[in-house]
Every structure is written in structure tokens, then in C-alpha cells.
Specification:
This protein has about 130 residues and is mainly alpha-helical. The protein has two domains: about 55 residues, no CATH class; about 70 residues, Up-down Bundle (AhpD-like), CATH 1.20.1290.10. About 80% of the residues lie in helices and about 0% in strands. Helix 1 packs across helix 3, helix 4 packs across helix 7 and helix 5 crosses helix 8. The chain is globular. The relative contact order is 0.12.
Length: about 130
Amino acid sequence: MNDELYNKGMQTRRSVLGDAHVDKAEANKTDFDKDFQEYITNNAWGAVWSRPGLTKRERSLITIALLAALGHDEELAMHIRATKNTGATQDDVKEVLLHTAVYAGVPVANGAIKIAKKIFAEEKDQ
């Protein structure tokens, strides 16, 4: 394992998803998925999310569009929640999902909008 890449990935992962989310994921890690967790920490968070070419806000919005387009609702919800850490606003998410409707389809965007509305309403109530 590349400790430097892993540490950079973990730092970025925590800054985007929050300590509570990452701590829970780490606590639930087993021998079965520890290699996968290391892989995503190294590659997604260390090698890609930590690159200087895009801001966390920009990466967040791209990720939301892709997850919505692919119908990955659980991951989409996680990344919509993470916008409070990335600098992406509700208006940013709204615009990305409207844009997603044009290129990935109205049903996909409709489902993603329902998820976003629920999350933003929950956050407002907290």
C-alpha cells in the first residue's frame, strides 16, 4: 500500500464526506471489503479527488451528475449530503440535475430531484 496516497485520500475523503461518515465506514469495514475500501481511498480519493485541476465543488457537481445519470441513488444521496462540505449549493445541485435531464433523461433527473429535495428538507429541519 502507498501510505502517502492513502493518507492524502483519507484526508480528502474526510473533508468531503465528513468524519462521521468515514468513521462509520471504517468501523464497518471487514476482511471482505477492506481491500475495496483501501482501493477507493487510494484511487478515488487520493489519486483523483485530491488532484489540483478541479475544485472540490466542481468535482462534487460532476459526481452528482454522473451518479444521477447512472441511477446510483445511495451514492447520489451521500454526495448530495456532502455538498455542505464541498461548497456546492442547492442552486448548483438544481442546475446540475436540470442539465442531467437534458443529457441523461427526465426520469433519471426526476428521481435524483426527489432524493435531493428529501435531503435538503432533512437538513433544513436539523
